[in-house]
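Allow me, if you will, to draw on your knowledge of protein folds for a short while. I am sending you one protein, given as its amino acid sequence and as whole-number tokens for its backbone shapes. Kindly check, if you would, that the fold set down in the tokens agrees with what the sequence suggests. The record follows directly beneath this note:
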Amino acid sequence: MSLHHVPPAAHDRDVRRAWWSIALFAPSLVAAFVIGEGLLAAMGHIDDPSPPVATALMAGLPATLVFALPTLLVWHLGHRAQGHGHPEGRTPVIVALVIAGGFLALNLVGLLG
């Protein structure tokens, strides 16, 4: 059965799932914190409030990627809904991109500031 024959309710479900997937940012935030702090500790910067920039990037990049993982799921579901005539699938994608981008911007400001 091709996707063109899937009932419209299934595509509405993609939009709802995209919105619900935004809730995955909560556990991904915890995981990112654990990974970032764990990597800093492994590199010998347990209580260092301002580690060297290279060290902070080596710990921060994997943490940021883990935090941003829900964006991929939201994008997939939202894009699939849009492809089947539900333009409202775009909104959760924009929200997820703003959340992930904001997290990245806050971490970069903290690194540079």
About this structure: The two ends are 55 Å apart (CA to CA). The longest helix spans residues 53-83.
